[in-house]
Amino acid sequence: MSLSKLAHKLLSPTALQTSRRSLASVAPSQPLQAHYPVVPGSLTAHLQLRSGESFTGGSFGAPVSTVGETVFTTSLVGYPESMTDPSYLGQLLVFTQPLVGNYGVPGRTRDQYGLLKHFESEKIQCRGIIVSDYALKYSHWNACESLAQWCEREGIPAITGVDTRALVHILRGQGSTLGSLSVGAEPAKNIDWVDPNAENLVAQASTDSVRVFNPDGDVHVALIDCGVKYNIIRSLCDQGARVSLVPWNHAISAELPSYDGIFISNGPGSPSYCTETIEQLRRAFEMYQRPIFGICMGNQLMGLAAGLNAYKLRFGNRGHNQPAVDLTNGRCVITSQNHGYALDDSKMPAGWDRYYVNANDGSNEGIRHLSMPFRSVQFHPEAKGGPLDTAYLFKEFVDQVRAAKAAGVDAIIDASADSVQQSAAASAQA
Length: 430
Ligand SMILES: NC(=O)CC[C@H](N)C(=O)O
What we know:
Pfam families: CPSase_sm_chain (PF00988), GATase (PF00117). About 25% of the residues lie in helices and about 30% in strands. By secondary structure, it is α/β, with parallel strands linked by helices. It has an eight-stranded mixed sheet, sandwiched between helices. Strands 2-3-11-8-5-4-12 form a seven-stranded mixed β-barrel. Mean pLDDT is about 90; it is low at about 1-30 and about 425-430.
């Protein structure tokens, strides 16, 4: 058979469907064997999905067992950033990039704001990692230790030798699924399948006191911390803002005049638990007239405050190559993403419009107010990892904040009204 005929046969829709069917028909309880050599001399590790499928491989992290929501990312690089992103709290993270660990893990150097330069928070946030082929040797000018050493030191289990193509195929089909990652000769028994999304993960990830960054900044931005990534704080500081990081449930509506702008961060789990943040934003939408911007969880919370609903996506969008179309100008940007929920934007509340839309699946990628400077995006303009294509949004936001301040825009629509006092009283009661 000629090469072109062979290629045609292999890539024909029928052949592709057959290969999909054969992967999908893996018997649920049949253990899938490790596809790659595992770490020599390592302990055996097991990944069991609540739906019955199981995978056996080698352990290269801490010899502990855990349960979490099994989700996958299609990012090619950036495991130190992804693993420390607080939005992964409660999750077992599967990397579709087969070779992981080859550039090691960087050290804990800090920048001029006191933020870790190479990590997105102080510690590993995901509950465990699942890879196809852990690199036994690492090499990078900046590396201080191996991925295995880091996981072990931080008490995070890790499994290698898993056929992540088969695993992702299962997760795409049935959706993100609870998984048990255990270390030992036998798979874990009597697993306690606690769903991390059944609790308020934002309350665990957020700061519990106000922290100020770049105190000499010329404009003052309140950053609501739902589980903020360090590069969001850094990106605002780099634009010259003084940033007050406040807890997720801070009574911000009682102190609106203190801020030249408000920013809402990313964060883990379901947005539905953040009722206090939603209520604070709802009040801010009624009174505040300076810029407000949200990222990811921030987009979801702004949408809920505006009157939209959020729903859980089947398997989420996690990766560094997600195309989003800016509906104000038709331009497509390539974005970094990590979310399992999305806003239902099929019917927009009065005064609001869709801002960006995902070019792959049509899901919401942002909303904007039509007359007030309020907008948010579902993707991550701060990247880390991922492309910097949308970093301009930080500049636009801080420029807008600065322009409003220079123009003397009052924080409150009717500063003389009782609204601020009423809000303060309501916040005090809440
Ligand atoms: N990165 C984020 O802020 C994620 C938001 C939310 N936890 C979700 O999964 O959709």
